[in-house]
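Project outcomes to date are best conveyed with an example. Our students and postdoctoral researchers have been running inverse folding experiments weekly, and each run begins with a structure described purely in tokens. The record below, which covers 225 residues, was selected by the lab manager from last quarter's runs and is presented without edits.
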């Protein structure tokens, strides 16, 4: 039986565009579904009110293109990963830049994700995953990816206790956030690099989007070790 969402032909509801927009690399909805953030290759992050148009535009200093965006769980902060190697944290209440996270020697960031109720921010970069304390603005951990020049995406498990990284070497790595220790690693047959990663709502299945045209689903144990 077809999904009710697909039972009818989709209808184009809106086209969100601004002059000077070069390429949109990532989009994400806020939890209420009314706010939509877009990462643009021209060095700006756009915030759209899906009912009323453009709500804000945030310019990244020295940007080399915005690659990834993420809302914090409260919807008050918006994080953006930039090709210049920095992650920017925008305060959506004041419209001001709240923090800039700058990993040492980073050549570019591809994705960001919030964890632990918004207290942690993870960023995927050039063979590393960086973890920051959002409130303190300090580095909380750095994960070095074995034999991978690029990390394309990061995702926290539903409980915030596990962090996954999708890597150009064809592997997905899992870390225990509390201990900062490696909890597991997975690679699909014939993998050509993992471009995206996501946990199921229950946290017991990990999905990986692979460059070989496959999506791999890994069954994870939910039992304590």
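After processing, the design step wrote out the following sequence:
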């Amino acid at each position: 039986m077809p999904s009710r969402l697909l039972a009818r032909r989709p209808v184009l509801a809106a086209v969100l565009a601004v002059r000077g927009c070069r390429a949109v690399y990532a989009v994400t909805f806020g939890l209420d579904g009314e706010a939509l953030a877009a990462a643009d290759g021209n060095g700006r992050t756009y915030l759209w009110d899906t009912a009323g148009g453009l709500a804000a535009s945030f310019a990244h200093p020295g940007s080399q293109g915005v690659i990834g965006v993420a809302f914090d769980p409260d919807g008050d902060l918006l994080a953006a990963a930039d090709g210049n190697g920095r992650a920017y944290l925008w305060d959506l209440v004041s419209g001001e830049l709240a923090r800039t996270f700058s990993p040492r020697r980073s050549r570019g960031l591809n994705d960001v994700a919030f964890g632990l109720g918004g207290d942690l921010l993870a960023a995927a970069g050039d063979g590393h995953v960086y973890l920051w304390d959002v409130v303190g603005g300090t580095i909380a951990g750095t994960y070095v990816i074995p034999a991978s020049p690029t990390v394309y995406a990061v995702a926290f498990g539903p409980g915030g206790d596990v962090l996954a990284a999708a890597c150009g070497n064809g592997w997905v790595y899992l870390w225990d956030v509390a201990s900062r220790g490696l909890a597991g690693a997975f690679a699909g047959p014939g993998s050509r690099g993992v471009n995206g990663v996501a946990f199921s709502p229950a946290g017991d299945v990990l999905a990986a989007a692979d460059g070989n045209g496959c999506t791999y689903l890994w069954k994870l144990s939910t039992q304590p070790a």
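The chain has two domains: 1-144, 155-225. The first strand starts at residue 24 and ends at 29. The training component of this project remains on track.
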